[in-house]
Design a protein that fits this description.
Blueprint (H helix, E strand, L loop, with lengths): L17 E7 L5 H9 L16 E7 L2 E7 L11 H13 L3 E7 L3 H13 L4 E6 L1 H6 L2 E3 L1 H8 L3 E3 L8 H13 L13 H15 L2 H6 L2 H9 L3 H6 L6 H19 L3 H20 E3 L7 H9 L5 H41 L4 H18 L2 H17 L1 H15 L7 H6 L4 H7 L6 H10 L9 H11 L4 H24 L22 H20 L1 H14 L7 H14 L5 H19 L1 H13 L6 H9 L6 H9 L12 H7 L6 H13 L4 H11 L1 H28 L4
Helix pairs in contact: 3-12, 5-12, 7-9, 7-11, 14-15, 14-16, 14-22, 15-24, 15-29, 16-23, 19-32, 20-22, 21-22, 21-30, 21-31, 22-31, 23-24, 24-29, 25-26, 26-27, 27-28, 28-29, 31-33, 32-33
Length: 724
């Protein structure tokens, strides 16, 4: 598949469409530039691993269509991790018209290293000197024209968040494409000794025209001298691959002996020598600020003794603020849906339609919608920490602990993403270079409480621990982290033995988050939550209403008389109103037991009995496998079936508190059980896509067993201790 496969559609004649790949190092602001070019609003992170798949966007300007592909941030085209493989293979297989290489102007030397590798691919390159305002503030003066002359490619200064220089990028792209495809720039000369070894390799590689069309001979020859394993694998497709592999081995061995160091190091040193010359020509440092805010903050935040306590304190503060600010809006929404249920009941006559709308739709979906304020506040606070640059510091704060349990320090990124949603978190594990570290990280990510589990935790914490709701939710989150670490320790000493690889990562400077960036982060997360409430959860609520309503139950006169006599025996002085209310409750309970849900629940109840769960909670648990929010909507339906809604409806929390079967101990067991059992279908599908069926089966069995054991242990031990 070549560049035309990604070319944007153009319905009118004019300049030919252009396909541009945005690539560069992590933290260079690549996705910000992508958003500015396309008008898209994708995730922008301050640490590696946010973009783990290529994203596509488009734009039309002056009659020309542009297709942009945002590739994962990488440090080199020598691919070790999956995100590096995605970027390199896309550039080789699809050959875009131009590579837009986004670089950090404040750290130009390191970013130019990748730029030189892009030039060797033979694809035209446009250099983007992003964060030029920060470079200016630090006294770094970059002569873009001089840098163009040295490297032979266009250079454009930009400030991504302000959209400064975006039109200049498009102008440069037009120039290199309209000039007949442009040139990739000036190739690095590696010195006579290395060039003498490269020349025969290039000639041999070019002898197979089909192979050379796919893999540029110059780039491939350099990679072979660097002993790139993937490059040697690709030689299998060359007509003379065996001889070329032997020739490459001889050449790299000669370089090792001649220079007294590994040929890969020799090639790297030559690149950096070229970069030093380019920087000397084009970059002047006029002054160095005496005070660095980033360094000053890091002296505290990254202190060896304070880093971890600060990290824990930050997370604790996030939950306290979330509950403090979200309590009243959540109560307002609960009241609004209670009023709505009463209003619908007053308008519609008693029957299936009213029951469907009040008990199924409003009772189920309304319970989930009431948690939107908490979701908005939590995601806003996490986005602030992310955009300001604290997440990278959190990685270093937890690195030592993670290594103790056999995890890689970089595992903290996908694990932190797991607090939002398990699906992107699992995909973010692609950044780990070791397959073993990647598998372990993916298997423990579901223990991190995602946004879908938050409504379940909040429901039970607010209902049964009203004075310490935030602390109880924080406790469940902490239990998830402990279980993730413990599971990683166990896996690394049993089925996935091996040492964790070293953790090396840059710390980006602190940056003030932008209002638009925060707004889009929160909007994207909240929109996903609301969409699930309006689709998956709505459908689930209607299905649950149906199985709790049918088959219909009609009590006989004898049954009603027996129930009336039994109630009067207990309450001899009961009024007719009290008797009528009691009979309604009895009929509702028997209708539930007679329904399909009651039949299913009673069938599976023995499996849940050690956890203290009745059949209602068993049904809610099973439906929660589709999406964890469905647990809330299921309970909302189950606890509203057969009741007369009114404006004084007290909501699901009050309904649970009014059920004598519920206790704080049972609620805590349910919170932990929901935390540990397998995640939603979407997350399970992602695990299968990343690791295959074998590891999916292992993960499902492991989490289900662990969840049941922990839930049963909490309830049984708590009951023995008199906590029930």
């Amino acid at each position: 598949m070549k560049r035309d496969d990604y070319a944007p559609a153009s319905s009118s004649p004019g300049p030919r469409a252009i396909t541009a790949a945005l690539a560069g190092n992590p933290n260079a602001g690549k996705t910000t530039i992508f958003n500015a070019l396309t008008g898209a609003h994708h995730k922008v992170g301050n640490y590696p691993g946010v973009t783990v798949e290529k994203r596509e966007g488009s734009r039309v300007r002056n009659g020309r269509s542009y297709g942009f592909i945002d590739l994962p941030g990488i440090y080199s085209l020598t691919a070790y991790s999956l995100d590096e493989v995605v970027t390199r293979d896309f550039l080789l297989d699809h050959q875009p018209d131009v590579i837009v290489n986004v670089m950090d102007s404040t750290n130009l030397s390191r970013h130019l290293y990748l730029c030189l590798q892009f030039q060797e691919l033979g694809i035209p390159v446009v250099g983007v000197l992003n964060m030029s305002d920060e470079a200016e503030a630090k006294g770094i003066r970059i002569d873009a024209r001089a840098l163009e002359d040295v490297l032979g490619i266009p250079m454009v200064k930009t400030v991504g968040p302000k959209n400064d220089g975006v039109e200049g990028i498009l102008d440069a792209v037009d120039r290199v494409v309209d000039s007949g495809g442009g040139a990739p720039g000036k190739s690095v000369r590696y010195g006579d000794e290395i060039e003498d070894r490269l020349a025969p390799l290039e000639a041999a590689l070019a002898s197979d025209a089909a192979f050379a069309a796919r893999f540029p001979s110059r780039w491939m020859a350099v990679k072979l001298l660097e002993k790139d394993g993937h490059a040697f694998e690709k030689l299998a497709g060359h007509a003379d691959g065996t001889r070329i592999a032997a020739l490459a081995g001889e050449s790299s061995s000669w370089i090792d002996g001649h220079f007294g160091k590994d040929s890969e190091i020799v090639v790297s040193e030559q690149r950096y020598g070229y970069i030093r010359g380019a920087v000397k020509e084009a970059v002047k440092v006029e002054r160095k600020p005496d005070f660095s805010l980033t360094e000053a903050i890091d002296k505290v935040v990254m202190n060896r003794f304070l880093a971890l306590p600060i990290f824990i304190g930050v997370l604790w503060s996030v939950f306290q603020i979330t509950f403090a600010l979200g309590e009243h809006p959540m109560a307002w929404l609960e009241g609004m849906f209670g009023w709505l249920g009463g209003a619908v009941s007053a308008v519609l006559p008693e029957g299936l339609l009213r029951s469907l709308l009040v008990d199924g739709v409003i009772g189920g979906v309304g319970g989930v919608f009431s948690f939107v304020p908490l979701i908005v506040i939590l995601f806003f606070l996490l986005s602030v920490l992310e955009d300001v640059g604290y997440m990278s510091r959190a990685a270093f704060a937890t690195d030592k602990i993670l290594h103790t349990f056999g995890l890689h320090g970089q595992s903290v990124f996908p694990m932190m993403l797991g607090f939002g949603c398990s699906v992107p978190a699992i995909m973010a594990a692609r950044t780990l270079k070791s397959p073993r570290d990647r598998i372990v990280t993916i298997l423990v990510i579901p223990f991190m409480s995602c946004g879908a589990k938050l409504p379940v935790h909040v429901l039970f914490a607010a209902a049964f621990f009203p004075r310490n709701a935030a602390n109880m939710v924080m406790l469940v989150y902490a239990i998830g982290v402990v279980l993730a670490l413990g599971s990683a320790w166990l896996l690394k000493r049993t089925v996935l033995r091996g040492e964790a690889t070293p953790f090396v990562m840059e710390l980006p400077p602190y940056r003030a988050p932008t209002a638009s960036g925060l707004a889009w982060h929160v909007w994207e997360k909240t929109k996903h939550y609301v969409q699930k409430a309006g689709t998956v959860i709505l459908a689930s609520s209607v299905l649950i209403w149906a199985i709790t309503t049918f088959p219909a139950y009609e009590p006989s006169a004898a049954e009603l008389q027996a129930a009336r006599a039994g109630f009067l025996a207990d309450r001899p002085g009961a009024t007719e109103e009290e008797i009528s209310s009691r009979l309604e409750t009895v009929v509702a309970e028997r209708a539930l037991g007679h329904s399909a849900a009651g039949t299913i629940g009673k069938f599976i109840e023995p499996a849940f009995r050690p956890l203290g769960f009745d059949w209602k909670l068993g049904v809610a648990t099973v439906t929660g496998f589709a999406a964890k929010e469905v647990v809330v909507s299921t309970l909302g339906v189950l606890y509203s079936v057969g009741t007369e809604e009114s404006e004084e409806s007290e909501g699901l929390r009050e309904a649970l508190r009014g059920d004598p079967n519920w206790t704080p101990l049972l609620a805590f067991a349910m919170m932990v059980f929901t935390l540990v059992i397998p995640p939603c279908f979407a997350a399970l599908a992602t695990i299968r896509a990343e690791l295959g069926w074998k590891w999916l089966g292992f993960a499902f069995a492991f989490m289900t067993t662990l969840g049941w054991v922990l839930g049963a242990a909490i309830f049984q031990i708590g009951s023995l201790a008199g906590l029930a």
